[in-house]
Amino acid sequence: EKKQQINKQKDTQMKRVLVKDLSANVLKLPRLPIPSIQQTAERYRASILPLKPADTVKAHLVKLDTFLAGSAVTLQNALVEANKAAEAEGGYPYSYIEPIWDNLYLSNRAPLPVNTSPAILIKKVKNAGETQPSVAASIVYGIAKWVQNVLKEGVEVRDANMDLSPMLRQFGASLLPGEKVDEFLITPFEKLRHVIVLHDGHLYAVRVFDDQQVPLEQAVIQKCFEYILSITPDTDNTTPVSVLTAGNREVWAGAYAELVRTPENAETLKKVHEGIVVVCLDSKKWEDDDGLKNGAMLHGNKEESENRWYDKHQVIVSADGQVAFNFEHSGSDAMQWARWVDDVLQSIESKAAATTTAAAVDATQVPSLVEPLRVTFGKTFAGHIRSARTEVLDLISNTALGQLHLPFGKKQLKQLGVSPDAFVQMCFHVAFHKCRNKLAPTYEAATTSRFFHGRTETIRSATQEMLMLAEAVNKETKESATPSESDRAAQLALIKAASDRHSTIAKAASKGEGIDRHLTALNCLAVERNDNAALNFFNDYTYKSCCEWGLSTSNVSYPWVERFTFGPTTPNGYGLGYVVDENEVRIMLSAFTSSPSTNVEDMNAAIGVSATRLYTVLSGSKL
């Protein structure tokens, strides 16, 4: 298999996939496999053992065995046959889980910020300038050049085993709010002309391509942003439609339906949908204020909550030129976002200085490139905006954020013979166990992009090996205690076992051999067929509680990522985004303040203590 992959990479080296071929499987990637029912059942059994008392597990597994002896094979066969039929037709859905997964995102009625849309703060970009307009123009020009290159030459194939079809869903993409389910709109690459800009809640469309789809000069784009900053009223927009995108989706859908009854509003909102991305020019300087940065990237804070449009990817630029991205998540995942951001940042950092400066641009041409977008409505409609704003401000107030830096990274951990990702997961589990004397059901995202239209699978990292390690480490009651040689030897063995087990289940998940997508599909079939025997298992409290992620975690590690964050996926859980750099690990924490079960400060401290203890055991010396 490895030889085939190497040969495949050699064959496709330096090749590109043209835009017209992105929706086709030109890389001949396999279809996401459906695991056997026996394999999933076996792995499910193993996954719940560390999470529940033995008597609870025993009673629950009786229901699993009843399901397996009953309709499980029938449901599995139906799933396999439907998948074969879809494959034979050659169209959507391209995997057994795709329609279910799409519907989970599009039918979710909860607000997008915190709950769904993740955010990345990037490091300072070389050659991007220093001011807000110059930095924003550098990013937007880089995106425009990326679109132009893709239209002309296609997307470069860096890895022949990575699906590139989601690249069609990055720019000019937008959610269209619906009462029960949203729609995902895609503007063809060849029709992309403008970006949407928000400043103090005021909307603008800014041309970045000419009619031949050649990008305007970066200096011209910068001049447009400077112009927007100069013409925006001094006071914030008191009734910004943008805030509706941050609230309940059903409310936004009803408000949207009201707005588009007016043809002018329908045209304005169509322009927003067709915008390449949304550029948020914030009014506050972030400087070195970590709390301000963390809130700005995830939900906008109270000061900038109206300066976001969550139906689309957003480039957020602070008043002092710092940059974050907030991503619309229904159409793609971190692997795809990182691909185009990486390309854009590389193009900015490698380019020569621009021959034309913004000061040299003919200012008279700028107003024709900047179109203020106005949405009109009556007094009663403003009530929707006020309600959405209240909901968003409540969400912001209810979201606690924290961060933690560990003074070692990939280099040191690999030298000590442990998987860096597994080590961070160990820190999380030992910390949670320290706080709650148990492990939490844990989700870690694994990409399945090696398959055509692959998205993600769950790594259930709360294993029996993790539990044994957490129990052993937390037996030492004094935080300053240094383990004895015998304890250290025992804990070293537990660390190795936990690391090896984690690597095994992570590899299985990336190969499409996890359990959660498979179980979700079987559950949906059981609901459709009103299969009581199956539902007796799927509706059991133990099953449901083991799928409520007390720790929702994700590793997004690229050289340009400073921080990565998202909200908890359950009311009583934590969101843990992390970046493993060469010599440092950076962790972002989130939780809801309304939860009696979570406390960001306590968890933050526990992760720090656990990381120090584990590193001491590994290295044999204190940090």
TL;DR of this structure?
The chain has 623 residues and is of the alpha+beta class. Helix content is 44%, strand content 14%. The chain has helices at residues 2-12, 37-48, 54-69, 72-89, 98-106, 132-153, 218-231, 249-259, 263-274, 290-298, 334-350, 382-397, 410-415, 420-436, 464-474, 485-510, 516-529, 532-538, 541-546, 600-619; strands spanning 16-17, 119-122, 155-156, 173-176, 183-186, 194-199, 202-207, 278-281, 314-317, 323-326, 370-373, 399-406, 442-447, 456-459, 551-555, 561-565, 574-580, 585-592.
Total number of distinct structural domains: 2
What is the name of the CATH superfamily of the largest domain?
Answer: Choline/Carnitine o-acyltransferase, domain 2
Contiguous low-pLDDT stretches (5 residues minimum) are: 6-10
Strand portion: 5-15%
What would the CATH topology of the largest domain be? Answer: Chloramphenicol Acetyltransferase
The strand count comes to: 18
Strand order of the largest sheet: 11-7-6-8-9-10-2-16
Using the coordinates above, name the CATH class of the largest domain. Answer: Alpha Beta
By helix and strand content, what is the structural category? alpha+beta
- Major β-sheet, in short? 8 strands, mixed
Radius of gyration, Cα only, in angstroms?
25 Å
